UniProtKB/TrEMBL annotation:
Protein name (database record): non-specific serine/threonine protein kinase
Location in the cell: Membrane
Organism field: Lupinus angustifolius
GO function term, MF aspect, one: protein serine/threonine kinase activity
Record flagged with keyword Plastid: no
Pfam family, one: LRR_1
Domain Protein kinase: 583-856
UniProt keyword annotation of Isomerase present: no
PANTHER family in alphabetical order: LEUCINE-RICH REPEAT RECEPTOR PROTEIN KINASE HPCA1, RECEPTOR-LIKE PROTEIN 55
Keywords: ATP-binding, Glycoprotein, Kinase, Leucine-rich repeat, Membrane, Nucleotide-binding, Receptor, Repeat, Serine/threonine-protein kinase, Signal, Transferase, Transmembrane, Transmembrane helix
Amino acids binding ATP: K611
Broad enzyme group: transferase
Transmembrane intervals: 510-535
């Protein structure tokens, strides 16, 4: 049945329906929403949202009371002013979608709202002051957007503001661009706020004394702003305050006295300019419930004395990078971590090896173990659940804004898993089990997060209704997490495995629908029979294609060239076996989770690298074909070329040009023995930038690499840089309109924070990763090293008024030990523009190429000349040994250029 037939039947059904209809006012409001949105839910059809059970719509007495479309990452558009027509709306949740534009003032008409969650989108403009009219609001979450301007408060002319929200317990407005001072009027003694979260904005000035009037506050986050001064003198009035986050500001003066704050469990005031007198204050160790104190990167001095005892709750005291000269632990056994690295005391002879002068690993790995069963070997992208059943789980990131959970243990993970299952069972949801994995602290906002997988019961996949119900429980905070994980939010990934669409009609309409169908069935019966035959034939063809998607590729028997590809050859298994001497161990040049990599020699004498996928890492046939088609589009001197592939006898192999000098990461670490002076680093930067610019602007269609890092930049025999590993790449076709909505993938440290938060992938995500790579080149450091993020470390010490921008302590001594490297300041400036927080502020890769060429001209070399020849690569002493600037390490080329997995288009 074609689309016109479907539309015709829908019109007949709508005309004949006589059952009760949704309020005209509510339906009118929804109509304006659907006109402004793309990729809305597929069952938003007809004129009766309440009667037809539209996804995300909940009704009471035919009035829409809840609208929740969270985690529909493809759902984009603006919110029109007509949303104000939904006057009976009590809950509005649009979390983790692709909405943009301003939040309309008409949202203030929804005076019955108790829950408003618009976080993790791309809303811009100011926070509407009309939100102050929502007198019943309990939960306000506008975080993770691009909102700017001042925090709105009421005035004498009748303008409302957030200070009027006397029933609100949650102000979540972090990760925006709010500016100006925190208005003293924002807080008053009539409020019942519990969470005041304004982290990662551009706020200035001091914390107002009025905050201490809200004695119900439990968590305060003003970290990552530009606040100054000290804490208000009445701050101790916040007797219920358990977590205080003030890091990365400009606070100064004496470290505040928090002695009276007996509920405190977690304090982070690091990276400020707090001072101390002769001793670190006693509250640091004496508060009864305090578990974690982070005061690093301040100006604290004197003695840290805990010889008089400490609280049994303590887990961590971090005082690194201060001016502490003495430490007195006393005679008692210390059962918590103390970190004093970076203080003068750790520079004394014999002290540097003490445990307190080391940085311990805080976050340990975790993955939910199987529930007394043996995990299954699953196929077709299924995953084995904790109950050892293969299924397609609903996945996403479960994120906590309370950082006190960073010292997790196994029982804490179990508590979260149990509480999740308790909530799903209480709501009668079709959930069999849940699993948590990949715990990490997000470097862009310090939030703590897991990957959450939710597995279906009694079947291997969810339907749309099941996913919608799960999303509703998580987005509307119905799930009550353990206190140590609260407040949380969830960002769900697109679910692609629906078992079928829910039926839209209710049982009361069956008679009418049957009558309508009977009226037209005689006209359709022949078409249906013909359609069934056609579908049957298509299914047979599809089954054949799934078994071997290459069946319609007729090889040229002489050349082996696949006609749909541009220059890639179809090799037989026997051919590749001959070229690798039967996959001999002596030909192995790398290995990993994907399988083995072999060096091979073609009959022409050409050297190739052959990736032989292991059975457990093989892709589906269609996905493998997609990867080959993508790689065959790439032809550029600064991009690794695909020579061919093999899909035969149950084997999957990719054949690449052989790159002899390993990866840039090998060279920077000293593993390859290649001396990377400043000129070579500039030429490598230029080559990699040209390759990436080609992928973005000249490949047809454009390709977003999605995993730019030093391990994926290879150096050929002339030290030309080549971009490699397209295992995570995405094509940017015209319909994507400048971005791709996709599950976040990449490598931590290089990952674009805006892409991570919005799941909207653009070329600027590659630009961010390239900026991190540039900082890696000038510092010789990994992006994340000993818990320090290279972008943050450079931004923290850079001073453009000083020589070398004050970067002496962080620059790689290999490039600075002889003479000052020319152009390095402009190089760092360019890198920092590439890692701007917001994508629109970053340059394009073609602009990066031009600026690197300008820097090379400053140095005085021709950027069009060939890179160093092989004979220039090595500085050879007598006897032929390679001089290695980073110490003698055996060279072991890992073959990191080979792809791991490509996501189907």
């Amino acid at each position: 049945m074609d689309q016109q037939d479907n539309v015709f039947l829908i019109l007949i059904f709508q005309v004949m329906l006589v059952a009760a209809q949704t309020s005209n006012e509510d339906y009118s409001g929804l109509q304006f929403l659907t006109q402004s949105w793309t990729n809305k839910p597929p069952n938003w059809v007809g004129s009766n949202p309440c009667g037809s059970n539209w996804d995300g719509i909940h009704c009471t007495n035919l009035r829409i009371t809840q609208l929740d479309l969270s985690y529909n990452t493809g759902l984009t558009g603006t919110i029109p002013k007509e949303i104000g027509n939904l006057k009976n709306l009590k809950s509005l949740a649009l979390v983790g979608c692709g909405f943009f534009g301003p939040i309309p003032d008409s949202i203030g008409f929804l005076k019955q709202l108790t829950f408003l969650a618009l976080n993790s989108n791309r809303f811009n403009g100011s926070v509407p002051s009309s939100i102050g009219n929502l007198s019943n609001i309990n939960w306000l979450d506008l975080s993770d957007n691009e909102l700017e301007g001042p925090i709105p408060v009421s005035d004498d002319q009748g303008q409302p503001g957030l200070d009027l929200l006397l029933k609100a317990q949650h102000f979540h407005l972090g990760d925006n661009k709010l500016s100006g001072q925190i208005p003293p009027k924002l807080f008053n003694s009539s409020m019942i706020l519990e969470h005041v979260l304004f982290s990662h904005n551009q706020l200035a000035g001091t914390i107002p004394r009025t905050l201490s009037l809200v004695t119900t506050v439990e968590i305060v986050r003003f970290d990552r702003n530009g606040l100054t001064g000290g804490l208000p003198s009445n701050f101790n009035n916040l007797e219920k305050l358990s977590e205080l986050y003030l890091s990365d500001n400009k606070f100064n003066g004496s470290l505040p006295d928090l002695t009276a704050m007996n509920s405190l469990t977690y304090v982070d005031m690091s990276n400020n300019s707090f001072t101390s007198s002769d001793n670190i204050p006693s509250w640091v160790t004496s508060l009864e419930y305090l578990t974690t104190v982070i005061l690093g990167d301040n100006q604290l001095s004197g003695t840290f004395n805990i010889s008089n005892g400490y609280s049994n709750s303590l887990q961590l005291i971090n005082l690194q990078n201060n001016a502490i000269t003495d430490y007195k632990p006393g005679n008692q056994k210390i059962n918590f971590d103390v970190i004093l690295t970076g203080n003068p005391i750790c520079l004394e002879n014999g002290v540097s090896q003490q445990s307190y002068c080391q940085v311990p690993e805080v976050i340990s790995s975790y993955s939910t173990p199987p529930n007394n069963c043996s995990p299954q070997t699953c196929s077709n992208s299924q995953i084995s659940s904790p109950n050892c059943r293969c299924a397609y789980p609903y996945t996403g990131s479960l994120v906590s804004r309370a950082l006190s959970i960073s010292n997790f243990n196994t029982s804490d993970y179990k508590d979260i898993e149990k509480s999740l299952m308790d909530s799903f069972r209480a709501q009668n949801l079709p959930v069999d089990s849940v699993s948590l994995s990949d715990p990490m602290k997000n470097s862009s906002n310090d939030n703590f997060q897991f990957t959450l997988c939710i597995f279906p019961s009694q079947t291997d996949r969810f339907n749309r209704t099941g996913v919608s119900q799960i999303a509703f429980v998580l987005s509307n905070q119905i799930y009550e997490s353990p206190e140590f994980f609260y407040p949380y939010f969830f960002i769900g990934a697109n679910y692609r495995y629906y078992e079928g669409e829910p039926k839209n009609s209710s049982s009361g309409h069956i008679g009418i629908i049957v009558g309508a169908v009977l009226a037209v069935v005689a006209l359709l019966v022949l078409a249906v029979l013909a359609g069934m035959y056609t579908i049957h034939q298509k299914r047979r063809a599809q089954r054949s294609k799934e078994q071997n998607p290459f069946v319609n590729w007729e090889q040229n028997n002489n050349s082996g060239i696949a006609p749909q590809l541009k220059g890639a050859r179809w090799f037989s298994f026997d051919e590749l076996r001959r070229y690798t001497n039967n996959f001999a161990e002596a030909n192995t040049i790398g290995s990993g989770g994907y399988g083995q990599v072999y060096q091979g020699v073609l009959p022409s004498g050409e050297l190739v690298a052959i990736k032989h996928a292991a059975k457990e890492s093989m892709q589906g046939a269609v996905e493998f074909k997609t990867e080959i088609e993508l790689l065959s589009r790439v032809h550029h001197m600064n991009v690794v070329s695909l020579v061919g592939f093999c899909f035969e006898n149950g084997e999957q192999m990719l054949v690449y040009e052989y790159i002899p000098n390993g990866s840039l990461m090998d060279s920077l670490s000293g593993k390859s023995g290649i001396w990377m002076d400043w000129i070579r680093r500039l030429k490598v930067t230029l080559g990699a930038a040209k390759g990436l610019s080609y992928l973005h602007e000249l490949a047809n269609p454009p390709i977003i690499h999605r995993d730019i890092k030093s391990g994926n930049i290879l150096l050929d025999s002339h030290l030309n840089a080549k971009v490699a590993d397209f295992g995570l790449s995405k094509l940017l076709v015209d319909s994507d309109r400048g971005h791709v909505t996709t599950q976040v993938k990449g490598t931590m440290g290089y990952l674009d924070p805006e892409y991570y938060m919005t799941q909207l992938l653009t070329e600027k995500s590659d630009v961010y990763s390239f900026g991190v790579l540039m900082l890696e080149l000038v510092t010789g450091r990994r992006p994340i090293e000993q818990g320090k993020y290279i972008v943050r470390e450079v931004m923290k010490i850079i001073d453009t008024s000083k020589d070398l921008y004050n970067l002496h302590s962080i620059l790689d001594p290999t490039i600075t030990k002889s003479t000052k490297p020319k152009g390095i300041e402009k190089f760092v400036e360019l890198a920092l523009r590439c890692v701007k927080e917001y994508a629109h502020e970053r340059p394009s890769m073609s602009d990066v190429v031009k600026e690197v060429e300008n820097i090379i001209e400053i140095v005085g070399i021709n950027h069009n000349s060939e890179s160093a020849t092989t004979s220039e690569v090595y500085d050879v002493e007598k006897g032929g040994d390679v001089i290695q600037p980073y110490g003698n390490k055996d060279f072991n080329y890992s073959g990191t250029f080979l792809s791991a997995k490509v996501e189907p288009q």
